Amino acid sequence: MNKIKTKNTQRTKSEAKAEAILKGAMKEFLANGYAATSMDKVAKTAGVSKATVYSYFGDKESLFNALIQNLAKDKFQTAMILPESESAEKEPKLVLQQLATKILENGMKDRTFQNFIRIIIGESGRFPELAQAYVNNLAKPAIKMLTQYFKSHPELDLPDAEAIVRVFMGTLVYYMMLQELMHGKDIIPLESDRLVNTLTDLITANKGK
Amino acid sequence: MNKIKTKNTQRTKSEAKAEAILKGAMKEFLANGYAATSMDKVAKTAGVSKATVYSYFGDKESLFNALIQNLAKDKFQTAMILPESESAEKEPKLVLQQLATKILENGMKDRTFQNFIRIIIGESGRFPELAQAYVNNLAKPAIKMLTQYFKSHPELDLPDAEAIVRVFMGTLVYYMMLQELMHGKDIIPLESDRLVNTLTDLITANKGK
DNA sequence: GTCTATACATCGATAGAC
DNA sequence: GTCTATCGATGTATAGAC
Question: Do both B196 and B136 map to the same domain?
Answer without folding.
Answer: yes
